[in-house]
Amino acid sequence: MKMKQMGFNLVELMIALVVGIVLMTSITTMFVDTKVSVNRSSTVSNLQQQAQLALQVLVEDVRSIGSWAEFSGEPLADIMSPAMALAAGSCSLFPTAGGNTTATLSEPQWANWVEIASAGTFTESDCINDSDGAGYSLAANSDVLSLARIQGNTVTVAAMTTTDYYLAVSPQQTQLFKASALNGATNIDNAEFYPYLHHTYFVETHATSGPRLTRFSRQGDTLTNDLIVGNIEAFRIEFGVDTSIPRDGSADSYYLSNDASFTAEMWSNNQLVSARIYVLARATNPDLTFNNDANYNLRFTPFTPTANDNYRRFLLSTTVVIRNNIMAVTR
């Protein structure tokens, strides 16, 4: 008896192939969409974390800007301080103060200031750009913030590093000194000794590696360049000023760094009581699936990306109260 052979005819085979292609296309599309969604979520999450880290670092420093422990006496201009000249070529982010070629704005009398980089007189050739071939440059759309204060706990004279600076503090008198030359600081009645801290924050840009938040820390008479966090495209700070008479400790107005009404006297007369900090994070690589036409309000001329540059961004802001703000004179 002849058996009938079973199998697919051409029509059935074509139908099976079409169904298979449809299924494979659907699965592939779902896989790609899932991968894109995961990458997008990961990028946004990373930007949020980096913005939070940058904001946290800035908040901790800004909160204590101009903090000199229990000192509540005369303005810092009356502090006896050594020359504190930075080593030649350290960085011209610190121009000279008032035309004085021996004093720079890294000294405590002038150390607290903030300016938008594009409006400042900063040059970067000896401290940022290409000294190590890295190709970074100063971002023009961000602030440059310089601040000085004490840091940490009290130290003993024996525990001091001879090349570093310290502050001898009492309620009515304070003196900045280098540990290698005490200059009578240990003779101040009831003085306690604190390490002197001076930080300068700015944003660097790069053609391929992305932007980053950087900080110069003063170590003795030299500067160290610290990378704080990557993917930070800009930060801006506006300060709340108590203009009421008598002063009540609350901010009556907020001023941007390039506001003509924001004067040196506001810094030196303890009128700064709070600050609003804005941090804008940007992904390292563009996302071609993302149509970016947003403006980001950093409380200055809104930051507008290049038309549809496909970069994902994340904006974060907070307000912080300034503590113990015996302010140095700004420029």
From TrEMBL:
Q: Name one Pfam family in it.
A: PilW
Show the stretches that span the lipid bilayer: 12-32
Q: Transmembrane: present as a keyword of the record?
A: yes
- What keywords are annotated for this sequence in UniProt? Membrane, Transmembrane, Transmembrane helix
Tell me, which GO biological process terms does this entry list?
type IV pilus assembly
| Highest taxon, organism lineage | Bacteria
Q: What is this protein called?
A: Prepilin-type cleavage/methylation domain-containing protein
What is the species listed in this Swiss-Prot or TrEMBL entry? Moritella marina ATCC 15381
